[in-house]
Amino acid sequence: MHYHEAAAFLFDLRRFSVKPGTERVAALLDRLGNPEADVSFVQVAGSNGKGSTARMTESILREAGLSVGLYTSPHLSALAERVRVDGLAMTEAAIANFVEQVKPWLVERAAAGEPLTFFEVVTAMAVHEFARREVDVAVLEVGLGGEYDATSAVDPVATAVTNVSLEHTAVLGDTVAEIARTKSRIAGGGVPLVTACEGEALSVVREVAADAGAPVATVAGAGQRDASDDAADAADATTDEPALSVAYKGRVSPTDAEVAFSGELDGTFRIPLVGDHQATNAGIATALARRTATALDDGGESTEAADASDASVSEAAVRDGLARATWPGRFEVVETAPLTVLDGAHNPAACETLAGTLAEYDYDDLHLVYGAMHDKDHAAAVSALPPAASAITCRPDLDRAEDPEVLAAALRTAGVDDVTAGSDVAAALDAAVERADDADCVLLVGSLFAVAEARAARMRTVTPRSPTGTDPTASATRTLKRGGLASDAAADRADAFDHRVLSLRLRGDRAERIAALLREVGGEAALGGLGAGDGRASGGERVPVTLAGTVATYRALCDRLAEREAFAGIAADIADRVGLDGERSSSPGDRTPHDAAYPWSDGTAVMGVLNVTPDSFHDGGRHAAMEDAVAGVERMVGAGVDIVDVGGESTRPGADPVPVDEEIDRVVPTIEAVQSVSAVADGDVLVSVDTRKPEVAAAALSAGADIINDVTGLADPAMREVVADAGCPVVVMHSLDAPVDPTNDPEYDDVVDDVIASLRERLALADTAGIDRDRVIVDPGIGFGTSPGESFDLIDRVGEFAALDCPVLIGHSHKSLFAAVDRDPDDREHATVAATALAADRGADIVRVHDVAENRAAVDVAAAVNGSQRADAEPTEHDPAE
């Protein structure tokens, strides 16, 4: 079964109405062999904030060294986002395999009048995936209610009820007490329950938990009057103090805030989510993660689980886990001038919370972009927001989306005078940004579906496809299969894809239109995935479309697209990639022009590795003494190195963390030594520092370092700030773990596409932090969560990373991928040199190597073969006598 068939089948299940109860999903799990028995689960219920809380809980547990699954809903851009293992979305292949396995049984159930709903089946799919991937624990966001939710078909080791308010009264109950009772029935005997509920809801939660034998830990959330007052409010139930009290310290950057905890954990922590409600969610996540770890240590049962004082989740895991728990689409700041925010708030209560968060920002006028579903109270929602100077309405690609004219009338009723009825979400956002001044705020709001469309347009990636192998037809077939075509269709159409080939993902109707226009002007196109269906059939997913044509056909295509408002941005992206403006690369392997001040501007630069550590995987201990480090630098400079990359902490598997002060003491003197040797040799060698710690980066830059090389891909927001303030080049690497976790075995549909998508998200964070995109270098992270075959694919297709418009660094030196060609750790020098030549030939801008002289030669030969000798190389005259 192909993915698009599987996804269409799942989305079609949405026609079945929700029925309370877990019997149906339990029956499906039984059919699958009861995979829930092999996984420890955490359930997060609540009226608001359960998605953010689940994400932060997962992040903390991952930082504690666990393999963690995460199940959330809805998805923003693709079904697979709902199910994640160690941060990576479930693969399309795994989804197809699951549906192929269960479809006959589901069809029989539907024919018998007992169909399962979309949410039930996807929940079972998540449980099955977590068991298949053998995660240590999986965090489940409860869908609706708790007691009868599909996620309650599992027996959790820890639970949480974030808060309770009136919602879904037709299903959950007419009062807060009734809803609290339904939600808190996820409690189990001996299983800890964490909550930030107050008053009547808290009393009900405690009552239900006591009946179930579940110990309760309360979190005094930010915005409550005082921890002691809140304890008094619940005095009818208990006199216990909260396990954790949270104080919201306010915003510290455009995207981040600080929270202070007191109680079982004291300290100030940073979260990438703004608002006192998110501070409360952070407190719940912290208390929940610590109790989860305690329960896991006790084998899944803990009679003292409410007391997490001995939890194996360290303060460092909490600190790093909270700081890295980004949650796209939830008050997501995507620009700062003007302040541009995407948020899925769709009802008055959510908009009221959103207004409170906006109050933390200074801006002049507010400009709304509003797209919503037809069954919402639009006027009341907009009335809960701050007064708007203007608004543009739009329609997401979904059958339930309201007509923009109707939305415009509702906004005028809410008191917005300047309202324009638009259509396309991305075009509406662009128009609002265009009309706003730098000191204004643009807010896109009303629906996560609208947020998803806006994000898809902003994150749109036009990827140049690299030919692979020596057989053009086989290469084109592989390209089309990567573009979502089934094997037979790809083989049938391969001969037509022999020009410049690009791929991107678009709404189905737009993908179909572009394909038709390209064929009209003499090119060729193929649609993959879910095909050209509308939002109803595709679940809002983007359709992969593969294009092939000459420069002339792409120019004709872009001219036609530019005439249509909804296609203008797509035309600009295609023109940019093909090089119609003269500034971008036109095919894989052609380098995007970069700042001429840097050595990678006109060819492949060589970065030499200088690890001043005792335990690095290849050269550990070789340069630990200063005299050895100096000798190493002298060898590199003499061999023609362009950049010396100084490392003070190993990221090899099993490496122990190095304290900040010790890493600084290793790195700073080495920087000074490199500068001294370079000056004596009249060289122009740049110094890079390989570190994941912002404190070390700041000290290195103060000592004169030129580049920061962060193996975590700027995961730490403080690192983003250090780099932005310095204005220095930075290497942003794709990685899942640092140090490398050899037990982590990630799965990719297409490693190049998946790594590009991951790096695109990292670049978006860098952009918002104020990092100059022209000074960002991307590193695919060979060996950091990639198999040998995947690593070779990254090298072979390095030209496709031109999609990110950044220089590309390949760090392959002496790594384990060469074991696939029978090279032991001590016999990888020649294999490294061969890979360097291939990477340089395919367009790598920097190669990071240990053996500079040998790899310098490989780079120079590749440049000579490509007819672009190094600028400082003298041409060799041919002797006629030879």
Q: Quick gist of this model?
A:
With 882 residues, this protein is an alpha/beta fold. It has 30 helices and 29 strands. The protein folds into four domains: 3-323, UDP-N-acetylmuramoyl-L-alanine:D-glutamate ligase; 332-458, Mur ligase, C-terminal domain (Protein-Tyrosine Phosphatase, Chain A, Alpha-Beta Complex); 475-578, Ribosomal Protein S8, Chain: A, domain 1 (2-Layer Sandwich); 604-865, Dihydropteroate synthase-like (TIM Barrel), CATH 3.20.20.
What keywords describe this structure?
15% strand, 4 domains, Ribosomal Protein S8, Chain: A, domain 1, Protein-Tyrosine Phosphatase, Chain A, eleven-stranded mixed beta sheet, 882 residues, eight-stranded parallel beta sheet, alpha/beta, UDP-N-acetylmuramoyl-L-alanine:D-glutamate ligase
CATH topology of the largest domain: UDP-N-acetylmuramoyl-L-alanine:D-glutamate ligase
Give me the secondary-structure category: alpha/beta
What's the CATH class of the largest domain, please?
A: Alpha Beta
Let me know the CATH homologous superfamily of the largest domain. Mur-like, catalytic domain
Radius of gyration: 28 Å
Count of discrete structural domains: 4
Percent helix, as a range, is 25-40%
CATH architecture of the largest domain: 3-Layer(aba) Sandwich
Secondary structure: number of strands? 29
Q: How many distinct helices? A: 30
Global outline = globular
Report the end-to-end length measured between terminal Cα atoms: 63 Å
Q: What do the pLDDT scores average to? A: 89
Largest sheet: 11 strands, mixed
Low-confidence stretches: 225-239, 301-310, 868-882
Q: What spatial order of strands do you see in the largest sheet?
A: 4-3-2-5-1-6-7-8-9-10-11
Q: How much beta, percentage-wise?
A: 15-25%
